[in-house]
Specification:
This protein is 20% helix and 23% strand. The protein contains seven helices and 16 strands. The strands form four sheets. It has a six-stranded mixed β-sheet, with helices on one face. A six-stranded mixed β-sheet has the order 6-7-8-11-13-12, covered by helices on one side. Strands 4-5 form a two-stranded antiparallel sheet. α6 (185-197) runs parallel beside α7. The longest helix is centred in the N-terminal third of the chain and has 13 residues, at 3-15.
Length: 346
Amino acid sequence: MRPVAAALLAALLAVLPASAPSVRGQGVSAQEVHIAFIGDGGTGDSKQRAVRDQVVKDNPARVFLLGDNIYSEGSRRYFGPRFDEIYAPLLTKGVSFHAALGNHDVEGCDATPLNPLPADGRAYVADGLRCNASYHLAHGPFGYVRNLRYYSVALPPTNPLVEVFVLDTNTLKTSQSKLLLREDTAQVQWLDQALGASRATWKVVVMHHPPHSPTTGAKSFFFVPIGGGRTREFQLDRQITPILRRHGVDVVFAGHNHFYARMFPQEGIRYFVSGGGGRKTYGFEAAPGYVANGDDWYHFVSVRVTPTAFTYRAIDREGVVRDSGWWAKGDAADRALPANRTAGGS
């Protein structure tokens, strides 16, 4: 192949959209898909293990990580103790994981000057410190399909009941964006095209930064502000929500803020914030449009999807169901599940 042709082919491959993988495993059928969503774990401590234990009891077929999977700088030396070893009881059972990159996972990284931005690890370069993004994408247990930053997973792979679209919000329009004077047009175009091509009954979008979220109260130590103060990502909402609405997305799961929050449906889309997987949690300020249980508790979200219903349970580290409900296609509001105090209820 001539050098010019080879260069053009390499440039094309750098921005090709990720295709949905062929996935198999327990609990995935045309009648029901059972998924767990965990955000902001990656500590390797007793809190992450306690949440993990409840996920094991829940016995999902798939686990999706909502970013900040390795604290605090995303270093690959912590992949073992803060992921592989923590989730070994699930991994050894054959449970598949799929991850989204969080801001801590790309700490020490800048965006490459390449434009459009590649869909793989070449999107990131070191900012003078160590950049571990490419190692995240290549670490098999994290489940980045084809080592790509954004991708989709169809469950089951043939005639899917649900398709989950995973984004890398670090290069989209957020308060922590790695891009300042340009946009990740390739990722936005991929999202538009992939959603439009999907024939799944249910469409779920997963990301780290939340386009909708209540605000955390700012904390202080001797009048010096520390932590808290996070709010929704307005620019991200404006960038991607028109695409989500156009293609009939059912629900968005995000992390980043270390609490559980569920927003009442917005033009047919449900929004969840789930950042209680292990990192220190905090509450949020009461706000209209959100369920009023923003207490400081560690958790994950268990989801069961059938052709006619989308069911969710927010389960804390003690196994208590703190929030739950379900909806059918076209429902303007969620419906209540039978009351039960522990995750074992159906």
